[in-house]
Amino acid sequence: MNNFIYDIPTRVYFGENQLGNLGPELSRFGKRVLLCYGGGSIKKTGLYDKVVAEIKNAGLELFELSGIDPNPRVSSVNAGADICKKEHIDVLLAVGGGSVIDCTKYIGAAAYYDGDAWDILLQKVPVEKCLPVITVLTLSATGSEMDAAGVISNPETKDKIGLIFPPMQPKVSFLDPTNTYTVSPYQTACGAADILSHIIEVYFNVNQDLQMLDGVMEVLMKTVIKYAPLAMKEPDNYEARANLMWASSWAINGFVNGGKRQAWSCHPMEHELSAFYDITHGLGLAILTPRWLAYTLNETTVSKFYQFGVNVFGIDAALPPMEVAHKSIELLSEFLFKTLGLKSTLTEIGIDDANFTVMAKKAVTGGTMHAFQPLAAEDIEKIFRMCQVK
Ligand code: NZQ
Ligand code: ZN
User: Fold this and answer.
1) What is the CA(390)–ligand 1 centre distance, in A?
2) pTM of this structure
């Protein structure tokens, strides 16, 4: 078993009616608050008014950055960083999904840098400091509320880059499942696919010796499989929304990958799809994951698939391991494409093979992806092609 450091320094207020703690939490870091949000969902739901009331009641000064896009752009990071510098912002408040939170994290980092924020994504400058980030989560998916990662797009260069910088870890996150009642069935499905993928990227690991974490991951996956369809059918089912919300945070907050060191596979591939075609992250992952699993299944890896099939999907343990493995991929596909109703091929979402070669090369950044099974650019291109047909 490998050594690891366990450190998740985000204070979480989980559940309903906790927003009264927002003012005091913001005040710990100063008086001047930059509120960051997306395309307006928080105004429609009334959350904006509640948050602003808390900020005003606490006697804090409010500044705003709105219009952060899904697959957030570096232009929003630069715009936010400019406000921070000009207005001497003390603390950032992200209210939204993963895109708003990711963008806010980089605003906090870019506030200490005088050039283009894209230099941070290109790792030309280190992130040693970040303004404190507090989040109010409105969509269960990315886990950005409880991790130090962030993903930013640059439409001009068709790049989407995700990096982890510990100073960007949110100081405090408000996780109220009722704030996700208005998430559409489609976004709920994409969020579920994203949570599953975060777990699958770690679970399918050649390091098999941390059984306790495998058990945790199996329960997290079963939680998503149970509650995502329910949340789609009954958007205001508290139990379903709460289970999805907490599962989304724990899927990627660093806990489940203790000791399991391995590059991810589907995420670098998906980021190329989003970079080139601006698709929803969870949708891309849903299409890629079963194909990637099928591509990596062989006599060496079959035992992991067997464990997955038996423990997550309840497939008969007496069946031959290879049969269980194939069935597990089938059941996962059925869940993603029938139960959640997500489109199952790249063709259906209007993506042809025009950019597969360049996207595959970019996904491995010129080398080989040292993942569950090593993947070279040629392998990735083949996986993209597998995604064209059902
Ligand atoms: O922009 P608004 O108006 O807020 O609408 C959003 C957006 O259109 C809407 N929405 C959010 N909460 C809602 C709501 N609509 C109604 N009611 C609510 N309560 O949903 C749409 C999608 O939002 P977005 O934030 O883009 O979704 P998500 O949370 O899935 O974030 C996706 C981004 O996170 C990155 C992805 O690559 C993508 O850019 N990721 C971040 C990670 C991280 N920080 O660790 C890891 C992930 O693997 C992922 O890569
Ligand atoms: Zn993801």
Assistant:
1) 27
2) 0.98
